[in-house]
Amino acid sequence: MRIVIVGGGQAAASMAARLRARGHEGALTVIGDEPAAPYQRPPLSKAYLLGQMGLDRLTLRAPEWWRDQGIALRLSETALSIDADARVLHTDRGAHPYDALALTTGAAPRRLPAAMGGDLPGTHVVRGLADVDALAPELREGRRLVVIGGGYIGLEAAAVARRLGLEVTLIEAAPRILGRVAAAETADLVRDLHRAHGVTILEGTAISRVTGDDRATGVALTDGRQIPADVVVMGIGVLPRTDLAQTAGLVLDDGIATDGHGRTSDPAIWAAGDCASTPWQGGRLRLESVGGAIDMAECVADNMLGAGRDYAPRPWFWSDQFDAKLQIAGLNAGHDQVVTRAGQGDHAASVWYFRQGRLIAVDALNDARAYMVGKRLIDAGQSCDPQAVVAAPDLRALLA
């Protein structure tokens, strides 16, 4: 069986490794449009941007691993179209016949429209290696950075820039930071952390455009204020990369729609990672996380080889900001109760989400024990009493 995987990220690398580990001996090709072999993305906006980690440590597999595994790794090659009837993938370098095709195309960062200055020199997004390589030389001590967007990417960029000595202003149009992904209690913890390190945060503040003629010079707000800037980072979310799937006529639903096994509307085509949406609790779920990419890619690999098992999401995330680590287990969608437990040390606490009395998610800032206990309970399908979270002298008692 000839298997072709489109995408050069974590999902592609995990899927290829799983296929070989599970005994697939046929032709296996991975096609990525970047010049670098599959690498870790989370450190890009943190350790790599700070100069603490080089490309050699970002890379997921050594060059000889791909060769020894008999995997054809084709870099800087762009997939253009799929002939689903003939089962052929066409790229800018030729044609790749397949028996099974996997789309692990990931997601692309959103930019402001050109009419709002989103394409001016000095404006940046943070997603891939090329993005960060372009941004890094701009982050010099004493310069002024404006971050547009108060999600995790924007907050991480703000933290790195402050550590490098820049003056940082973060602008969020919604009433508060982390509005789509975390409770107000978690947002309060993160806001306090950033303000303690000198980040100016403007919430409930809309922008009209990035100013400048030949280069970004600032950000104009809808209330008439002007925020000067030498550099602008746009952290306004990502969109699943579905162009290839769309041209092939695959069903889309907030990403490439799959069944519980990871198969698309074409029985010979599969999808996994940030680009894929899967059935979940009567609706659909698309996870943007390393853990989700690995788990789904491995499940799809198994199913390509006939396992027939449903993908069961076990969401977990993390975000490093300054010297603090925010660890998240579960999904807080639909929560109706939140309790907060103080941790030990500066900016340490955990936020526990419940739905109809059942634990569904935990945010833990500088509190590894709270994260560990919460994740074990959620993964096991167990819960705990909300008041016990606050009152227990030792959280490990909740596991009993």
Question: What does this protein look like?
Answer:
- The chain folds into 3 domains: 3-108 and 239-304, FAD/NAD(P)-binding domain (3-Layer(bba) Sandwich), CATH 3.50.50.60; 111-234, FAD/NAD(P)-binding domain (3-Layer(bba) Sandwich), CATH 3.50.50; 323-399, FAD/NAD-linked reductase, C-terminal dimerisation domain (Enolase-like, domain 1).
- It is 23% helix and 28% strand.
- The chain contains 10 helices and 26 strands.
- The chain has a 5-stranded parallel beta sheet, covered by helices on one side. Strands 9-16-10-11-12 form a 5-stranded parallel beta sheet. A 5-stranded antiparallel beta sheet has the order 22-23-26-25-24.
- α1 (10-21) packs parallel to α8.
- The model has no long low-confidence stretch (mean pLDDT 96).
Helical coverage, percent range: 10-25%
CATH superfamily of the largest domain: FAD/NAD(P)-binding domain
In angstroms, what is the radius of gyration? Answer: 22 Å
Number of helices: 10
- State which percent range the strand residues make up: 25-35%
| CATH fold-level label of the largest domain | FAD/NAD(P)-binding domain
- Return the average pLDDT rounded to an integer: 96
Biggest beta sheet summary: 5 strands, parallel
Task: List the topology elements.
Blueprint: E1 3-6, H1 10-21, E2 28-31, H2 55-58, H3 63-68, E3 72-74, E4 79-83, E5 88-91, E6 94-97, E7 100-103, E8 107-109, E9 123-124, H4 129-135, E10 144-148, H5 152-163, E11 167-172, H6 184-196, E12 200-203, E13 207-211, E14 218-221, E15 226-228, E16 231-234, E17 238-240, H7 243-247, E18 256-257, E19 269-271, E20 276-280, E21 283-285, H8 290-304, E22 316-321, E23 324-330, E24 337-342, E25 349-355, E26 358-365, H9 368-379, H10 386-391
Parallel strand pairs: 1-2, 1-7, 2-3, 7-19, 9-16, 10-11, 10-16, 11-12, 18-20
Antiparallel strand pairs: 4-5, 5-6, 8-17, 13-14, 14-15, 20-21, 22-23, 23-26, 24-25, 25-26
